[in-house]
Structure prediction request, 601 residues.
Amino acid sequence: MNIRNISLLSSAAMIALLAAFPSQAQDYRAQAVAMMKRDFHAKGMAGMDRLNEDGLQAICNRTNNKPPKGIAEQMEKDEAASLKLPADGKLMGDWKSGEKIAQAGNGMTWSDKPGAPAGGSCYNCHQIGPKETSFGTIGPSLFHFGKTRGFSPENQKYAYTKIYDSKITNLCSSMPRFGHTGTLTEQQIKDLVALLMDPSSPVNQ
Amino acid sequence: MKYTITLGALAALSLAGIAPSAAAQGKPAAEKHHMKPMHAMPAMKAAPDPTTADFEKFREVLEDDNPAELFEQKGKELWTMKRGPKNASLEQCDLGLGPGVVKGAYVKMPRYFADVDQVMDAERRIVYCMETLQGFKAADLAKKPFSSDSSTPDPVSLTTYVAGQSRGMKLAIPQKNPKEREAFEVGREIFHYRAGPYDFSCATCHGEDGKRIRTQVLPNLSSKSGAMAATQGWPGYRMTGGLMHTIQWRMNDCFRQQRFPEPGYVSQTITDLLTYMAVNANGQVYKGPGIKR
Amino acid sequence: MADPMKIRAQMKGDAAEIRVLMSHPMETGQRKDGAGKVIPAHFIQSVTVTVNGKTVVDGQIGTSVSRNPVFGFRVKGAKAGDKVVVSWVDNTGDKRSDETAIN
Prediction:
């Protein structure tokens, strides 16, 4: 699985930035990374390559998740360039499947079965449907997502983009890049968009 | 539930306590807790939400009957028993306060140990003592280091015993030695290091106050109260499954959920991370092995 | 051999409060392991408590009780210094007996 589509497109900008943050903190970081590479071992699908930062992670790690505006904009553009919208132009699938995907928290851990479809772990961090009362609060509430924002095609695209790669709109967002990393399939993302944007989805009741 | 009670000569025997205590520890009760609906649906502010508040009450009741004590007791036995290829006890193990001093040692670890020229956390030091004093092989101890349905590894019981011997004492993780300060700094970097397919660091979930995953409140480990909340509960008896776990297990399972590869058991990485957390909690009273849902 | 119990026995007013923590898997026989194999039932069947040799509890418990169970009793007529013995036998015939003095 190709989870390392490293977005090093703006590497020149990045190197410039890295040079601007030499400080002692970086020595400890280098020490920390070297230590982890020594102390960790691959298990299941979780290979040692996961300890390497990609370009985006490197910037976020070095700026305490607050990248300078210019760099953030440039790198967000780089992320956007790797966005793949569905070829058939349809952004919404089935909200019922979407609800199941939103509930499922499995995927990408060393104890997950390689090849088995991953969940979106959405409820871990977001309030979504009205029936699920066990939801996390790391992300904003998505209840009434379509109802409050409007059911426009632009908002469908926004939702699809956010799930595909949350970093396109917010470079150091806490949310994973589910499409970019191949964690969720195109159909799964469509189903999640439907959960948020279908007027008949319980989210919008 | 069937109780056939034959009253003996002592006439008035009240069974007050049997049913509630037994049920309180049982899985059905614990599950009920999970399923309890949250009130106040929209715009939930976390900490302390009703579920957590309920559980806190429940835990207070159980504190005196925490099954963790069974493991403290077992650990004490293991500490004094002559075992291993060298047929020795751990009574000469130096946990930082001199050979054999267990009381108060847990709240001063992780700390620097001159004999290894390294900072070690409690479980790491215990495993080191099992190796050097008793002749156990670290690689064997690392094979199945965490409690399961079928067994509780010895270092888990031993760590629980050692932790219990610091009950009620203030956390005083030393930061005088340069290696101790280095462990803190490196630990802080590990805590904030984002990588892997989900871009997660420890701080993604544990860097802010009042956040939850599902209904589980996430302590902010970079804050004093959050770091204490996290340090406080370990080693902890988990009622889900009824297993005794140390903080080594907690770190391991966090890295699993962070989608990282697996950290080595009692590795320096874990020690440094624990140093960062424990120093953040310094000065607060350690209540002893905890109980968790 | 089974692990020891933890027994606390304290006078509270005119009665002794006895609390017992038992170390036992209390496996119901209805759970399956990761491989789908049934985990055999393994649970405490009978519990007895004596105070100075007199039986005050002779009870039967079953699979509805959790792993590492806690029991509490209040016994009237007991006094400080009395010897409390708690014993259990499980369905495999394994047994354990521990004692303490009331304080």
